[in-house]
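MODEL INPUT / OUTPUT PAIR
PAIR INDEX: 1
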Amino acid sequence: MRTLEVRRHTMRRKPGQHLSQDGIELARLVGDQSGPFDVVVSSDVPRAIETAIAMGYEVNEIIPVLGHLPDAVFEVGVWPDSFDRLAQAVSSGGQVGRFADEQSRIWTGIARRIPDGASALVVTHGLFVEAGAIASLPEADHASWGDAIGYCEGIRLTFDEVFKDCQVLRVPEEY
């Protein structure tokens, strides 16, 4: 069995691309409570790379598509929305369904590359996490997963040739 943890980046100082001090502190807290990871993968967006580093992990691989949301998906307006509502958009196919399937394929490739018993961390973005989780476990009770994930929140998937289980990972409410 392999484990894949997928997290949204932490807070940044908008409109800039770099993390805020609060974001760094949250990433440290989350990093102290997760891992260790055998492989760490990030999008090419600075806030995602910096989140992994602030969590205490070296980024081993950058996959640009983990950080580039197609305009057609963004325009559908499904984020931030609950897992259940997003699952409806994913199951109806179209751009959102294709986007979700692409995320799941990327995650499957990462999970297949790590040895049995190993774990990997993927740091990406909001909507990427939810859509990929839904596509990875299309028959799951998505309503039980709750609202859209927040900063540094994510999911933990178990993998044994296919994804088997999903745990939603939340952060303390003060963040």
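PAIR INDEX: 2
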Amino acid sequence: MTIQASASVPLASWSHATVDVPAQGLEVTRSANDSERADVMRALPLAALDKLEVRYRITGLAGGGWRLKGQISADLVQTCVVSLDPVSSVIEEPFEVEFWRETSDPDGEDKSVLEGPDIEPLAGDEIPAGRIVFETLAGALDPYPRKEGAAFDWNDRAGDAEKANPFSVLMRLKDKE
């Protein structure tokens, strides 16, 4: 699957200034409008994106970081890699990312990348919730969607004759002389 580069990331407007996050945290429930869904469809590419909803919470962390944690819910249609027929999918995908002004481990310990949330640098004073939602959705897509029962049956009849005799190409060249 190829994600098409564009001037701006879809859902980029879904960001929050760190100064707007209250001490008790910020709860957000959001649904993509028609224009936002169309931008995501073009960028991924999808045949249809009927629903894109997200619930997340932003909380401040000791030491000056922020945690973005939530759940994506999407109803979408991809194209079958075999038959090119539509393939419907429902995606329910959690995400958790910490943003820090410096990307070194805040505890000073080396940890496996598989432990805990992703850690990203905080560029400016904006938490890019929309970018994280978009990237999580893109990562949750089936890279090779296949309609149930679709099978790729292909026989290379020309290749079978050459497999029988690996020198058949050389023989044809010799005959032309």
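PAIR 2 NOTE: Residues 1-7 have pLDDT under 50 and may be disordered.
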